[in-house]
Amino acid sequence: MASGAPLSIPAADRHLRKVIYGFWAACCSIFLGALALVTVGRLPPGLALFFAGFFILLGIAFFLIGLVELVRRSMGVNVHVEDQGMALYPSLGARRARLAMATPGIGCAPIAIFIEYALGDSTVGFIMTAIVGCIISGLFFLTFVGSPYRRDAIHQGPLMRVSPDYFEIHPLTDKEPTRIPWDLHPSITGGHEDTTANGACLFVHVSLDGLEEDLVFDMTGTPISFSQLERLIDYFVDKPEERAKLGQPEGARLVRSLLTAP
């Protein structure tokens, strides 16, 4: 697994907010769309208008995704009571929306060619539009099919679970979950950011008794922040007498109170 510069827990939370909400990305996309409009008359209209529309719509989509996620998280964390303990399921709306936005990119070639046919008056411009459009469509298609976070490539279970006996974490693309007994005293030590073709991803580092190196887990889709996870884990490591509640309905209230504490 690739690693990047170590991040403290507060720094990891700041990066996580950028990944989830994407308001800065929305502003950049709208700016690029406006910049593409300026190129109309200098580039073939098929390409210029396609990129203008694509980036403006992308910026609006980023803004709406961030706004919806902000509202959802302000309503609190949904803790599921299961036989094995309290489960936290991943938040996949933003990730699925980002994958869906690859569709206009894949359609670059036919859309740009249609615009060029309707508005262009240059054979050279038409040929350029066709070539560039096919390249862009191909790149978006490869990015889409190569994404590890497609619906058919991720598991459908909880991302994390706390039980009377262990803490479990199951990154979206891992085949099996990793169970960490409380007796090993897990501790969140920080994280790192890794930028891939599918965007920025954040990883959490977990130290265990007897291990020289931390375990590293992909936090894509996490419904909670690094600091919330740290608070949750530290509580049950320090208070073993409280772990029995995780097998009972009152465990959900306890977990919610820990995750919503200031």
Q: Tell the overall outline.
A: elongated
Q: Treating each run of at least 4 consecutive H or I residues as one helix, how many helices?
A: 9
Assembly type: single chain
Instruction: Characterize the biggest β-sheet.
Output: 5 strands, antiparallel
How large is the radius of gyration?
A: 23 Å
- The total of beta strands comes to 9
Name the helix and strand elements from N-terminus to C-terminus, one letter apiece: EHHHEEHHHHEEEEEEHH
Strand content: 15-25%
> Averaging pLDDT over every residue, what do you get?
86
Neighbour order of strands in the largest sheet: 2-3-4-5-6
Class of secondary structure makeup: alpha+beta
N-to-C span: 33 Å
Assign a percent range to the helix content: 40-55%
Which regions have little confidence, pLDDT < 50, spanning 5+ residues? none
Give a verbal description of the structure.
The strands form two sheets. This protein has a five-stranded antiparallel sheet, with helices on one face. Strands 1-7-8-9 form a four-stranded antiparallel sheet. The longest helix has 30 residues, at 45-74. The chain starts with 5 loop residues before the first strand and ends with a helix. Helix content is 50%, strand content 16%. The protein has nine helices and nine strands. The chain is α+β, with helices and mostly antiparallel strands and 262 residues long.
Task: Please give a handful of descriptors for the protein shown.
4-stranded antiparallel sheet; 9 helices; alpha+beta; 9 strands
Write the layout of secondary structure elements.
Blueprint (H helix, E strand, L loop, with lengths): L5 E2 L1 H13 L1 H16 L6 H30 L5 E3 L2 E4 L4 H8 L1 H5 L1 H12 L3 H24 L13 E3 L3 E4 L8 E4 L5 E10 L2 E9 L7 E4 L7 H13 L11 H11 L2
Antiparallel strand pairs: 1-7, 2-3, 3-4, 4-5, 5-6, 7-8, 8-9
Helix pairs in contact: 2-3, 3-4, 3-6, 6-7, 8-9
